[in-house]
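Case study.
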Amino acid sequence: MARERYHHGDLRGALLDAAETLVRERGTDGWSLREASARVGVSPSAAYHHFASRDMLVRALSERVLAWLGERLRHDCEHAPGQEDDPQRRLIALGRSYVTWALDDPAVARLVLRGGATGPDSAITPHPHDVLTAELDRLTAAGALPEPAREGAEFVVWAALHGLAVLLADGLVRFDDPHAVTLQTERVVRTTLNGLAQEASHAAGRPAGRSAHTERLARVDLTLTQRQPPSMGA
Amino acid sequence: MARERYHHGDLRGALLDAAETLVRERGTDGWSLREASARVGVSPSAAYHHFASRDMLVRALSERVLAWLGERLRHDCEHAPGQEDDPQRRLIALGRSYVTWALDDPAVARLVLRGGATGPDSAITPHPHDVLTAELDRLTAAGALPEPAREGAEFVVWAALHGLAVLLADGLVRFDDPHAVTLQTERVVRTTLNGLAQEASHAAGRPAGRSAHTERLARVDLTLTQRQPPSMGA
DNA sequence: GCTCCAATCTGAACAGTGTTGAGATGTGAG
DNA sequence: CTCACATCTCAACACTGTTCAGATTGGAGC
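After joint prediction, the assembly is written out as follows.
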């Protein structure tokens, strides 16, 4: 596995690859920078010309995977089975893609989902969160999600899906039947959307058209975390 | 800080305390066993008479906190503001307690919520998950949650609440107004419950009383993870 | 009271870690 | 062909988790 040329060519990418498979083999912390370097056939200190620290390596990997996940979600929305025009079907496809990924690649998912550096901003495109909000907009435009319930709705849906994904990736819950994951994911999305719709219709029944409760919620200023992109990474 | 007696008396507890404050100061991995030992005024190897490894220390701490959280949730259900007879109010109080804790003590929450050893089983009493299911049962008994929707409902609610808590603890979302957290939590719980109720009523409208979809969901075998309790830890 | 065992803790050591800095080795622009 | 610069190596640093032989102690049984 020793390379012949002194210069590696793409050491950065190779280190990210090695780190990714190491995460898969032994989790986020079950490996060392030295080991990743050794796998690539390079001295430990070589890595420091591409990443400021081990943490930065992990963060860069996290961002790489996150961007890939964004692509995957978007793709699976576009190619939702059945009618991809139905915005609700699209959202279910998104949820399924998200959760399935977390379950199929749990070690990497654990790394990425607890966001050491996965705050929505960075140069990550498309960020999974953006894909979700776009789908909710589409849902609203199609009339499937009432206007009054739209504000902050991405947060409710995100929490539910994220919770599901994290619970599965962490192994806190487990399904015997792999198909059950799909069903539960679908149920979570449907339940959440139904709940959101009903909340809005309740509000519409009130005198002012929107209840005081909904009104206050609308004023909630949901600020997504700003994080520095790794200086040498990404 | 050096103790006078050779035997510490309660080194185990003292190490757990030190670990807890270290987690709070520098996160799950930002400290060493040696440092925790030093804080307690004891040699590093002393810790190994109480915990098989550093990991076991962390796991034991996780379980201690988890049990404490269970107590907290149960307490906050019992003493729900307003009418503690209203099962929906109780569940909202539970959600509030859960999420608020994650936000107020994020470092410890991060440690505990990703469950290295927090699978519902162990000797943890009361386990937060059990408190949740008990509340859902109460909700069903009161008629606020239709029978057909009860099965697996704890999973939907848990996912939503857990997702919210994890997103906040990980700093993936942030609210400017601290009160907004309360509102969003309430919204998440309400939305989920409404969604579950509506799902059931939809099903009731069908010929067989339960749709094929609900029928399949009912057969989902939700298995909670079984994990070994740490051999030397509690 | 004393004895003696088992629990508890210490000290020194091991291999392995992240990280640094000085120097070797190539590469591509001029 | 040269030479500056990016890339990589080597050796070293302080520190980590962990082990184990031996010192220290509290308490049970006499």
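Observations recorded in class. Chain B touches chain A through 49 residues (CB under 8 Å). The beta strands of chain B are 173-175, 222-224. We will return to this complex in the next lecture.
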